[in-house]
Amino acid sequence: MNPESPKGLLAGTDGHLRCWWHGGYEDYQHYHDTEWGFPVYDDRRLFEKICLEGFQSGLSWLTILRKRENFRRAFAEFEFERVARFGEQDVERLLQDTGIVRHQGKIRSTINNAQRACELVEQEGSLQEYFWRFVPPAGERPDQMTYEKLGKLSQTPTSKALSKDLKKRGWSFIGPTTAYAFMQAMGLVNDHLEGCVIREKVKDAR
């Protein structure tokens, strides 16, 4: 971070200040500016993101982002009705796919979660209707988001509740920290820092 910039903010390629984590990488900055924190209501994208957050565990999101198109090809564009029908041949195929993270537990978890997603849609109507019930109540998070405050928010009571409910429904690889990262990315919260050029755009979109 530029020592002259407010803590937690980093100038992008256009000179505007953004959340530090884009790191000056063009693809990461594009993700920060156009996806992270903007509200998502599409079931396929919600399912994709919660699966990729599971694959990210122990890795950086940039690693997953740069493999995202490979993941989409490998997992039928994350159409969960199709992924739910994957069998052992698909598991073996995915374990040989060098374009993705070849972790057997996470691969099997994605197939399991696709099956659970189908059940959830039958029970709740859509993934959108379900996940958007987990917008945190007023007062759970600070109104003014700073670098220091964000650093203390790896999980929240709402992300714990989401994780607990999904696990009860049979989902896997979705702990409270993963659940909160999902909430941040899908716009259930706006964790762009104060002073970030994108914060107000996300606020308006929400």
Automatic annotation (TrEMBL):
Residue numbers binding Zn(2+): 19, 32, 192, 196
Identification of the protein by name: DNA-3-methyladenine glycosylase I
SUPFAM superfamilies assigned: DNA-glycosylase (SSF48150)
TM stretches of this protein: none
GO terms of biological process kind: base-excision repair
InterPro entries, alphabetized: Adenine_glyco, DNA-3mA_glycosylase, DNA_glycosylase
Keywords, in A-Z order: Metal-binding, Zinc
GO molecular function terms attached to this record: DNA-3-methyladenine glycosylase activity; metal ion binding
Source species: Flavilitoribacter nigricans (strain ATCC 23147 / DSM 23189 / NBRC 102662 / NCIMB 1420 / SS-2) (Lewinella nigricans)
